[in-house]
Amino acid sequence: MQVSHSGLSEIKEALTKKVFFGIEPSPELIAIVLVYFVQGIVGLARLAISFFLKDELGLSPAEVSVLVGIAALPWAVKPLFGFMSDGLPILGYRRRPYLILSGLLGTAAWLSLATVVHSTWVATVAIVFTSVAVAVSDVIIDSLVVERARKESLANIGSLQSLAWSASAFGSLIAAYFSGFLLENFSTYIVFGITAIFPLIVSISAWLISESPTNQLPNANSIRQQVQQLGKAITQKTIWMPTLFILLMQSGPSAESAFFFFITNELGFEPEFLGRVRLVTSFASLIGVWLFQRFLKNIPFRTIFGWTIVLSTILTMTMLLLVTHANRALGIDDRWFSIGDNLILSVLSQIAYMPILVLAARICPPGVEATLFALLMSVSNLGGILSHQFGAVLMYWLGITQTNFDNLWLLVTISNFSTLIPLPFLRWLPETEPETEVRGTALQPDSPAVAALELDSTAANNLMSELSIVKGEQSLAKEEQLTTNN
Questions:
Q1: Residue 304 burial by Cβ neighbours in a 10 Å radius (0-12, 13-18, 19+)
Q2: Which uninterrupted H or E stretch holds 325?
Q3: Domain 25-480 classified CATH 1.20.1250.20?
Q4: Measuring CA to CA, which residue among 423, 268, 283 is closest to residue 347?
Q5: Which of 62, 171, 179, 204 could form a disulfide with 395 if both were Cys (CB 3.0 to 4.6 A apart)?
Q6: What is the C-alpha to C-alpha distance for residues 356 and 249, in angstroms, rounded to an integer?
Q7: At 357, which helix (H) or strand (E)?
Q8: pLDDT truncated to tens, each residue of the chain (486 aa)?
Q9: Helix (H, G, I), strand (E, B) or coil at 159
């Protein structure tokens, strides 16, 4: 059976429109999509890591919380990877070698977890390397998307960011679906071994990247000047006050590790069930993005932050029903209560996080928006690290262990009420739309320090464009750019 040339053309056109959001397929585009997909699919081992630390290494909830915080450190120094890529080319190339190395590092780290890691310190190093691998590839592939996005036609504006986000989200959904199933039927070591395959896709995809060698040497004076200009921007009151607010909001003590021990050791939740919960929460997060985009994006910062903080505190207290087994007295099964609770809290959590992205994007003054946004996101990630460390201290003080959960209700209560701490500082936020004026802080738009970080300033847009993905209206994505300073 022969397929006509016109038939093939129609198939290609349909794929271009429906799958690639109107962008003409190319080897480099395939590479970009694959790298973002890998960033999502490596979450396949997230649940396995939790069980590995708990069961194989026998760590306490406090120790797991400390280790999780340490593992997140690469995301707090992500801008550094961007400066390295632009200022320290390898064999004359800024992108391809770093992608190859990040893939190889990720595979080596996962393979080590699958084979030779049997102690806490070695496990910590290996898990940190897995984070480094993803963070480096994220910085590099972001820069490639920025470079291509600058060349997009008006008809396709925002489509590339939507495609990249969709690839990552698709990988995350697959990981959520299979993570529990695999762990239910195989050991954590097998799951780590399977996960080790995916970073190799990043290394292979790097050869599809079209990149010309550069002879430009790092300019120390230029970098020093850019750092000074960035410092001037950070000292502006309209920037550092919201930044501190974001840090406060993100750094409240976390009860996550202790709660994981509780639902697995006390309630007996199996990996497969936890995988289903992860799948539900992934879809719930998408709903949260859509709700924010549809109904809440134009609400003033002080109002949206104030209400989300209060509502988060109230609704998160429902965890106490599960911790104290009060849900059983109400006739609600532990599993059904957990699914419903996670569904509601995930929607609210995403709605609460979206204003952080919006605020971070809009307080950045022209000229330094890319680098400053990356730094603000690093501050947010730093808050998450502090959250795990504060939580670990509380777990230790309250005597919460693998089997003792007598004071878990108190930890949950403290953790929930700590989210109210930023409320007195709402005045640190702009009352309406921020109109930041920073003099003498402009970076050169084409400077190396900016290019590799620029997509961080569209990270908010990647999430916000979910509405466009759901409605099939990718051409509107640019209209919702969060980095536009009105």
A1: buried
A2: none
A3: yes
A4: 283
A5: 62
A6: 9
A7: helix 334-362
A8: 454 555 556 555 655 655 555 566 678 888 888 998 999 899 899 999 999 999 999 999 999 999 999 999 998 888 788 777 777 788 888 888 999 999 999 999 999 999 999 999 999 999 999 999 999 998 888 777 766 665 655 445 456 666 777 788 888 889 988 999 999 899 999 999 999 999 999 999 999 888 777 776 656 666 676 677 777 777 888 888 888 998 999 899 999 999 999 999 999 999 989 988 888 888 888 888 788 878 887 888 888 899 989 998 998 899 999 999 999 999 999 999 999 888 888 888 888 887 887 777 677 666 566 667 778 888 888 999 999 999 999 999 999 999 999 999 999 999 999 999 999 999 998 876 544 444 344 444 444 333 333 344 333 333 333 323 233 233 323 333 333 333
A9: helix
Q: Where are the domains of the chain?
A: 25-480
- Which amino acid, one-letter code, is at 380? S
Six-digit token string for 6: 């016109």
What is the rounded (10 degree) CA torsion for 340, 344, 350, 351?
170
Q: Roughly how many angstroms between the first and final C-alpha of the chain, as a whole number?
A: 58
Contacts 24+ apart (CB under 8 A), 291-299: 291/347, 291/351, 292/350, 292/351, 292/354, 292/355, 292/464, 293/354, 293/464, 293/466, 293/467, 293/480, 294/467, 296/351, 296/354, 297/354, 297/358, 297/464, 297/480
Give which of 425, 424, 427, 418 is closest to 300, Cα–Cα. Answer: 427
Supply angle C-alpha 331, 336, 339, rounded to 5. 145
Residue for token digits 């898990």? 127
Q: Which of 252, 194, 222 is nearest to 417 (CA)?
A: 252
Give CA–CA dist 363/377, Å, rounded: 12
Ramachandran region of residue 89, left (φ > 0), alpha (ψ -120 to 50) or beta? beta
Q: Is the pTM of this model over 0.85?
A: no
Structure tokens at 434: 């921020």
Distance CA 32, CA 147 (A): 12
Show the DSSP H helices in 363-447 as ranges: 369-397, 408-418
CB contact at 8 A, 241 and 305 = no
Neighbours of 215 (CB within 10 A): 6
At 348, which amino acid appears? L
The single-letter code of the amino acid at 159 is S
Contact (CB, 8 A) for 180 and 274? yes
C-alpha span between 74 and 68 (Å, rounded)? 12
State the residue for tokens 């799958």: 19
